[in-house]
């Protein structure tokens, strides 16, 4: 009897694994404005190769119409917010009377920035997300008030900084001083939280390609952030998405900007090393 | 260990003595992943069980399982095996064990433990994202578990 049960559950497990193996992201390529081809699937970086062969953008798991919206800047509703942030980029603010452009030049000169964030900041002796870096400039270089971590101005600015990097390869450093934070993020990624006891890995590593109720599970990559979601018709930050996913495990979430989410972001970003930056992306 | 056995016995005794008393989530006794004793002593209602299995706000089992018998419920997931024929594959006691706490039958299962109140990491207050408060209870009540088990037992091929 016990043997029979063992055999049965082995069968069940084999069944589940088999469907994971035929995970079905679409066979399609993302070409922005008919010009720039983005890398939406590539060989997994060494530090995740024990868990995944390939890493894939969430774009491959969305429907035909949603994918098309992202491929054309006129159809991508996220681009409106990029334009708004471009104005802010060029507008002086704070006691120093400076704009971002006064120190950094054109926003397009920032194209190497998004792919390397989160990254270690020597002066602050901690890992900085892009949001933390922007607020550091506002507070300490412009004499301006910090923006709310996941508020509108901030998410728009991250959309601008992502858009100028589109097509560049995500490449966050996980070694050196950032390593301890990366390890902490990895730990969080595999922790089964909440009353449903589900980890990020349960859904985004073990089950990507499968349907969970009405949702087609992706690998939960963040190369497309911020994402314009059709569901709430606005740009969504990385930490807002993390919060939503943890809440859905019936858990007490962490707050946007918390050390836990910064660590988790570094780890999740590193799982997408090799993919193109594609923010602002379109998701449902 | 000895204490937990004692509690189990105590709970079982009081269930018999009071007739309708329930076995608490912390007092359920598993044997090879199965639970032979009814959690309430009241026969399960399969019609209500089928509601619970398909309802997003109750068991939401269809989030992960397909059930042909519930063809009218849209968007059935595919994380776990289809539940068709579950009543042939498993005894009532096994089904009760799986629904109450599947991780005992299937080690590390992704399936949530529906009749459990302890041992969670950062348990929340339902889907609010806030910390659990003193209203925290199992995902399904003892009678809901019995109803679901009664329904699963009807799924024969």
What does this structure look like?
- With 284 residues, chain A is of the alpha+beta class.
- Chain A has one domain: Orthogonal Bundle (Cytochrome Bc1 Complex, Chain D, domain 2), CATH 1.10.760.
- In chain A, 37% of the residues lie in helices and 10% in strands.
- A 3-stranded mixed beta sheet of chain A has the order 10-9-11. A two-stranded antiparallel ribbon of chain A has the order 1-2.
- Chain B has 157 residues and is mainly α.
- In chain B, helix 2 packs across helix 5 and helix 4 packs across helix 5.
- At the A-B interface, helix 1, strand 7 and helix 9 of A face helix 4 of B.
Stretches of chain B where pLDDT falls below 50 for ≥5 residues? 5-18
Query: How does the overall form of chain A come out from the CA principal axes?
Result: globular
Based on CA inertia axes, which overall geometry of chain B fits?
A: globular
Radius of gyration of chain A: 20 Å
Number of helices of chain B: 5
CATH C-level class of chain A is Mainly Alpha
Q: Looking at the chains present, what oligomeric state does this protein adopt? A: heterodimer
Largest interface: A-B, 34 and 37 residues
Q: SSE order of chain A in H/E notation?
A: HEEEEHHHEEHHHHEEEEHHE
Number of helical regions of chain A: 10
Q: Kindly report how far apart the N and C termini of chain B lie.
A: 40 Å
CATH topology of chain A: Cytochrome Bc1 Complex, Chain D, domain 2
Instruction: Indicate the CATH class of the domain at 46-117 and 138-154 in chain B.
Output: Mainly Alpha
Tell how many strands the DSSP assignment of chain B holds.
0
Protein name (chain B): Monoheme cytochrome SoxX (Sulfur oxidation)
Domain Cytochrome c (chain B): 44-156
Signal peptide (chain B): 1-20
Keywords (chain B): Heme, Iron, Metal-binding, Signal
């Amino acid at each position: 009897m016990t043997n029979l049960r063992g055999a049965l559950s082995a069968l069940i497990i084999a069944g589940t694994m088999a469907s994971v193996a035929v995970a079905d992201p679409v066979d399609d390529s993302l070409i922005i404005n008919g010009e720039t081809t983005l890398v939406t699937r590539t060989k997994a970086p060494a530090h995740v190769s024990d868990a995944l062969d390939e890493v894939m953008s969430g774009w491959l798991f969305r429907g035909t119409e949603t994918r098309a919206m992202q491929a054309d800047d006129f159809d991508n509703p996220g681009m409106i917010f990029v334009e708004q942030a471009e104005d802010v980029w060029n507008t002086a603010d704070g006691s120093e009377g400076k704009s971002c452009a006064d120190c950094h030049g054109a926003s397009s000169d920032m194209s190497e920035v998004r792919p390397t964030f989160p990254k270690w900041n020597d002066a602050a002796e901690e890992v900085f997300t892009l949001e933390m870096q922007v607020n550091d400039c506002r507070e300490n270089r412009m004499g301006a008030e910090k923006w709310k971590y996941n508020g509108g101005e901030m998410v728009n600015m991250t959309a601008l900084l992502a858009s100028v990097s589109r097509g560049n390869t995500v490449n966050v450093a996980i070694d050196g001083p950032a390593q301890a934070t990366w390890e902490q993020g990895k730990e969080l990624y595999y922790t089964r939280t909440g009353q449903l006891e589900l980890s990020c890995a349960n859904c985004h590593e073990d089950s990507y390609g499968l349907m969970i109720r009405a949702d087609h599970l992706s690998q939960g990559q963040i190369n497309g952030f911020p994402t314009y979601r059709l569901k709430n018709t606005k740009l969504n930050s990385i930490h807002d998405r993390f919060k939503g996913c943890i809440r859905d495990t019936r858990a007490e979430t962490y707050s946007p900007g918390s050390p836990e989410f910064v660590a988790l972001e570094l780890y999740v970003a590193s799982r997408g090393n090799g993919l193109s930056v594609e923010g602002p992306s379109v998701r449902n | 260990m000895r204490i937990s056995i004692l509690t189990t016995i105590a709970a079982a005794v009081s269930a018999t003595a009071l007739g309708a008393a329930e076995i608490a989530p912390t007092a359920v006794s598993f044997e090879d992943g199965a639970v032979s004793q009814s959690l309430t002593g009241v026969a399960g209602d399969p019609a209500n069980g089928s509601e619970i299995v398909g309802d997003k706000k109750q068991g939401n089992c269809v989030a992960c399982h397909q059930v042909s018998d519930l063809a009218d419920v849209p968007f059935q997931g595919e994380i776990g095996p289809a539940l068709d024929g579950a009543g042939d594959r498993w005894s009532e006691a096994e089904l009760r064990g799986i629904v109450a706490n599947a991780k005992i039958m299937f080690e590390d299962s992704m399936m949530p433990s529906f009749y459990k109140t302890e041992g969670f990491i950062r348990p929340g207050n339902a889907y609010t994202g806030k910390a659990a408060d003193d209203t925290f209870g199992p995902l399904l009540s003892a009678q809901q578990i019995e109803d679901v088990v009664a329904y699963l037992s009807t799924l024969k091929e």
